[in-house]
Design goal:
By secondary structure, this protein is α+β, with helices and mostly antiparallel strands. The chain is 16% helix and 46% strand.
Length: 257
């Protein structure tokens, strides 16, 4: 009897369930995005051209320009601009621990005298700190190209700004904002000052998919199992004792007379 009751009890315990939420921007309204200048060395600049109504993949897309203002010979300088999408957020403490993140976006090389129009990678921001995923993608010349990045844990991320920490994907982690970065390091190999130039790139169809452990269906702690099992055991023992009492008056201490 005890074995049967405990087995039934285990079947009634809530099972862990996975949740999925996706974000997608195909239009890139200027009001929906904000930027952070992560790095802008002397001799460089940037311009967020914002939404371009046509020419995307298809329709509207977001355009950005990174500029070398004319570097002295033998020097390098970098620029790194982060962009975050308003309302593309996920709160692990409210929704559940993150199990994986999947990013997808289209890039276009629009103008550049070099072999790149900028290097892209997904960015996230948590508690004011910015992190970049380890994989980087290059906007290559030609037609629009689709790129993807996947993260299955906090160790997939590199700290960009902060104090040596990693993002917290656990059920106690803070709100996470999603975005991307475009960056480049300019170099001048001449012995004289290099002429200024721009590199122009586009991004379209920015998508983030969050796979998470639904906080509402978390598996109980071991202590919960112990308490549940104790209660069941007590109930079964009480039932056994009552059956014994009903069948044997001597079990209550009364004589048989």
């Amino acid at each position: 009897m005890l074995r049967a009751v405990l087995w039934i009890a285990m079947l009634t315990l809530p099972a862990a369930q996975a949740g999925v939420v996706s974000f997608l921007d195909e239009t890139f309204l200027d009001a929906d995005w904000s930027t952070v200048v992560v790095q802008q060395d002397a001799g460089t600049s940037h311009t967020i051209n914002g939404q371009i109504a046509s020419g995307g993949n298809p329709g509207a897309y977001r355009q950005q320009t990174l500029s070398s203002l004319g570097l002295p010979g033998g020097t390098t300088a970098g620029v790194n601009i982060a962009s975050f999408r308003n309302l593309f957020t996920f709160d692990p403490s409210a929704n559940g621990a993150i199990q994986s993140l999947n990013f997808s976006y289209d890039l276009a090389f629009l103008a550049s005298p070099t072999s790149t129009a900028g290097f892209f990678r997904p960015y996230i921001r948590q508690n004011g700190f910015i992190f970049g995923i380890a994989g980087v993608n290059n906007s290559a010349a030609g037609a629009w190209q689709t790129f993807q990045n996947t993260s299955t844990g906090a160790s997939d991320w590199l700290e960009v700004t902060g104090s040596g920490s990693l993002p917290d994907f656990s059920a106690s982690g803070g709100l996470i904002e999603f975005g991307y970065r475009t960056a480049v390091t300019f170099g001048c190999s001449l012995t004289t000052t290099c002429p200024p130039f721009d590199i122009v790139s586009g991004i379209d169809n920015y998508r983030v998919t969050v796979n998470f452990q639904d906080a509402g269906t978390a598996i109980p702690e071991p202590s919960t199992y112990a308490l549940f099992g104790s209660a069941l055991l007590a109930g079964v023992l009480w039932r056994r004792r009552r059956i014994a009492t009903d069948r044997d008056p001597g079990a209550t201490g009364l004589g048989r007379g």
